[in-house]
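To close the chapter, one final illustration. This time we ask the reader to focus less on the individual chains and more on the assembly as a whole: which components sit near each other, and how the overall shape emerges from the parts.
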Amino acid sequence: MKIEGKRSIWKEYQKEIADDRYFYVRSCVRQNFFPGSEKTFLRIMKDVLHKDVFENASHTTCSGIGYHSDVVPFETAMTMVARQFAIMTEAGYENFTTSCITSFGLYSEILETWHHFPEVEERVRQHLINATGRTFNKPANLAHASDVIFKFRKEIAAGGMYRLINKHTGKPLQVVEHIGCHYSKMFPAKGVGGAEYPYVLAGMIEDWGGDVIDYPERRHCCGFGFRQYLIQANRGYSLACSKKKFDSMAPYKPDFILTNCPGCPMFLDRWQYALSEMEGITYGENGLGIPVLTYEELAGMILGYDPWDLGLQVHQVPVEPLLDKIGIPYDSKRKFLTMDGKMMGQPKAPSHLKFYQHE
Amino acid sequence: MNKKVIVVGGGVSGMTAAGALSELGMEVVLLEKDDHTGGHAGNWDRLFPSRRPGKEVIDFIEKSMSSTVEIRCGSRVTSIDRNTEGFTVNLHNGDPLTAESVVIATGYELFDARKKEEYGYGIYDNVITSAELEAIFKEGRQLVTHNGKTPQRVGLIHCVGSRDEKVGNLYCSKVCCVTGVKQAIEIREMLPGCEVFSFYMDLRMYDRNFEELYYEAQQKWGVNFIRGRLSECAENPDHSLILKTEDTLTGRPLKMTVDLVVLLVGFVPRPETRIISDMLKLQTGSDGFLSPVDEHFKDNSTSVPGLFLAGAVKGPACIVNSIADARATAVQVKAYINGEMVKW
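The assembled structure is written out below.
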């Protein structure tokens, strides 16, 4: 593979990402799946980068999950998104930043629709006035939160305590990057690096010391696929998609998988457990799985945050092998303690997927 | 009247037009930006459908340019001005030239396969273009993978940069289908143990002996034709390539590993042609190629009196058609210079 070829493509897809004053909207599901990620994003933005990030509790779902599951009509979705823009406008912000990839895709789709069909925008504006009496400005800048971390990846590296280097071998960690389908597959120009070889996560991995793995099923869906999972009868297809990816990446011996979507880390993490129970297959070394991280978790690890503050204890695939490779300390005894020091309970050991024993 | 004509472009069309104009008694200057004439055809080993050596055709056309044709290689046109005397053509290296008439025969460029990002050209070591394969044939080199092994399986991908809304080219490049068939046969000739798979949307075997060549490829050479547009190409750890497509005849998705992929790249207008058309306010089609005044009856003429077009500058054309078109242009130019009205 010629990295120069990828760099040439990356140059074609440069994206403007606002420098400060972000109106941040959370995901519907991430706080359940990976509870430390959004909190870590805010912590990095405020404490490390000293940026103005504003949240508003009146923010609701963008309805993207329903839209992509064919239960919410586009007209409804547009009006709900118009309301989010109204809240941003009322707060005095113009840089809209989403935690969720599907939200980012939906916001991009709606803004593009309004650009090409101004009469639709006018109709939605009227819907919003009728329903809420609100008006809005469209965002001056729309970015996914991973775009923002990408923008400041060098600052994070400079202020970091750790790099993606195997402390035992001195070699860069081998990393699979998995991009959410709704990030740039619909609108390549809206994503850092385009749709075919996105750079948003690859840039973080590079600047934080790791090597990116280019494996054959890199572009394939994580397995969520909305209706693949949400309709129970389709879940075998969801698992098959994830298995296809694991089978394809396993020969490259990845140290971990990095993601930027709410669903992808969930399915790439939890389905490793499901596949191990169903088929007895594990994809990591010595019966372990391949750890799966969100980009906020990884940025927090680079900055030396306590792994349990990042929420790594709720991962299905143990993350400790990766922490040990990098040399990040952790207290195993605190893994399942709540914030106020109570025992939250410990999961039952899976049949095949091993729990990690600290070295 | 000085009967001087400047032909811009030293490929098949330009050389043919220059030779014909010289035969017709004109004083001709042929301008070529590269350091040699011959254009794309000069890089081709054998030509479809007869597989006649490309050099044979180029040599014939070069010989047809008598000594009265002044060939100026390495000359890039910077501007063309129409004035009352005729034309002034300015070059990047030398004094301006004047002429009664100018023929634009700047041809085409090959589509930059990197724009089809999902096919991996410029990224994966074993993805090459049809032009690179032709250079291997022409130089007498053995076809091998990037690590020097003889490929056991080769995939040829049709319509790369043509009939593709995603890259902005809706038009057919006309010559790639039959080029792909020709090259598939040539790979089998060179490497009898190598399987060859051609992935196509539909095969446009429009001209004489094209269909026969397509049959020969299947019946004599065992080339496998799969009706399906490639969706993506990815690399395996051993640098072989995984192709994903849908076999639209069986209606099933298809995934196949090959050792080498050849992208049959189409035609695109040259950027220089766009500059010339802007300069002289010439009409272009939605495909970006120059348009003649009338596609049926004045298909070599432009809206600028004395300025004519020849060959693939008007859109994809094979060598046979380019030669015929350039000869027709020469007749039109002579009639214009002599003040004759061509009624046909």
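Chain B has a mean pLDDT of 95. Helices of chain B lie at 12-23, 54-64, 130-138, 176-190, 210-219, 271-280, 319-337. With these observations in hand, you are ready for the problems at the end of the chapter.
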